[in-house]
């Protein structure tokens, strides 16, 4: 898990998912036509058109966005809140969860215990004492590194960062807040199983990528399928399966840019190999004002094949194959553009690896 248990970084805290909100870093909205069926007096079924529902995807870019929106999302809940979090040390979020429970919302929380039990114990104790049944995550996984908040079984925030307020002002992270019903149902089904400690094979909805189920294959498919460009940020770069795929992409002519925080040259040998293969690597010092905690890949930006992956998955074998993790893949031009803008800015500000 590299430095995640040392410097777990920030929550991407988020913007409220509301129509016409100007507080977000970007949103893509699609009107989805709905049809229902009624039965006439004669017994014949006939379709009846109903008003379209808006499926909305909102990108939140940290650290610029701030955290009021994630608190607002908790505050907006009327029936349920389900939170899976690798690390929770944000007392404002904890108090908001307890306040939701006090007003009658069913609030459930899963916290990692394999790597973050000591840091999570205060939140675990407080929440359980204040009407929020909080469970330690299953030891089936090497770690539960997922960061997801789902409200009222209808809206979910898929995050790359943790609810750790000490890092909010310095960590690059992203969140996608969305209400695609297939995604939300899949997330809620996995939450229910993980909360109960029962086995489950997750389904992907329309956009999801799960560890340990299919994260490695989906991330490799994005890298191996790129034809023009790859822009990458991650906190870890120690998995040869991924680094080899990035090297091979550069060798076949893809412009590959990698931006990371360099923590005591932990990945120096990987950076050397990537650079030798033609990958453009830029880094930030661990002491810099910006810490690259995001896990994001933008492939073939500016083409009809453009795709982005963002979420909790790091480039390690454990993260992709042994942890509970969740990511989000989309071809939404607005989400892609927003993430690409941040990655391009970070790359421009980094120091070329040599």
How would you describe this structure in keywords?
single chain, 354 residues, alpha/beta, Endonuclease, Chain A, 2 domains, 29% helix
Q: Gist?
A:
Helix content is 29%, strand content 30%. It has nine helices and 17 strands. The chain has two domains: 57-200, Endonuclease Chain A (Endonuclease, Chain A), CATH 3.30.870; 209-352, 2-Layer Sandwich (Endonuclease, Chain A).
CATH topology of the largest domain: Endonuclease, Chain A
Q: Structural class of the helix and strand makeup?
A: alpha/beta
How many distinct folded domains?
2
How confident is the prediction overall: mean pLDDT? 89
Order of helices and strands: EEHEHEHEEEEHEHEHEHEEEEHEHE
Q: Assign the CATH class of the largest domain.
A: Alpha Beta
How many whole angstroms does the radius of gyration measure? 20 Å
Distance between the termini: 25 Å
CATH superfamily of the largest domain: Endonuclease Chain A
**Percent in strands:** 25-35%
* Sheet of most strands: 9 strands, mixed
How many beta-strand runs?
17
């Amino acid at each position: 898990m590299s430095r995640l248990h040392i410097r777990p970084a920030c929550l991407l805290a988020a913007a409220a998912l509301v129509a016409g909100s100007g507080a977000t870093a970007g949103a893509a909205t699609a009107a989805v036509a709905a049809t229902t069926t009624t039965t006439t007096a004669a017994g014949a079924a006939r379709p009846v058109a109903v008003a379209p529902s808006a499926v909305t995807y909102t990108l939140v870019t940290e650290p610029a966005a701030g955290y009021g929106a994630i608190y607002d999302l908790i505050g907006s809940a009327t029936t349920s809140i389900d939170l899976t979090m690798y690390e929770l040390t944000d007392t404002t979020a904890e108090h908001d969860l307890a306040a939701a429970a006090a007003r009658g919302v069913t609030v459930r929380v899963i916290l990692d215990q394999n790597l973050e039990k000591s840091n999570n114990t205060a939140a675990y104790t407080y929440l359980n004492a204040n009407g929020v049944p909080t469970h330690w995550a299953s030891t089936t996984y090497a770690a539960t590194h997922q960061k997801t908040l789902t409200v009222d079984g209808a809206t979910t925030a898929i995050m790359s960062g943790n609810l750790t307020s000490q890092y909010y002002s310095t960590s690059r992270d992203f969140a996608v807040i969305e209400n695609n019903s297939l995604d939300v149902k899949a997330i809620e089904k996995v939450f229910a199983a993980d909360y109960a400690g029962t086995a489950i094979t997750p389904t992907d909805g329309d956009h999801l990528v799960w560890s340990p189920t299919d994260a490695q294959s989906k991330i490799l498919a994005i890298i191996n399928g790129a034809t023009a460009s790859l822009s990458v940020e991650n906190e870890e770069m120690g998995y040869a399966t991924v680094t080899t795929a990035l090297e091979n992409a550069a060798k076949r002519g893809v412009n590959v840019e990698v931006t990371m925080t360099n923590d005591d040259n932990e990945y120096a040998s990987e950076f050397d190999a990537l650079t030798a293969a033609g990958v453009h690597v830029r880094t930030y010092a661990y002491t810099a004002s910006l810490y690259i905690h995001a896990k994001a890949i933008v492939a073939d930006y500016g083409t009809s094949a453009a795709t982005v992956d963002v979420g909790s998955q790091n480039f390690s074998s454990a993260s992709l194959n042994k942890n509970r993790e969740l990511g989000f893949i989309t071809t939404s031009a607005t989400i892609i553009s927003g993430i690409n803008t941040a990655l391009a800015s970070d790359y421009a500000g980094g120091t070329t690896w040599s």
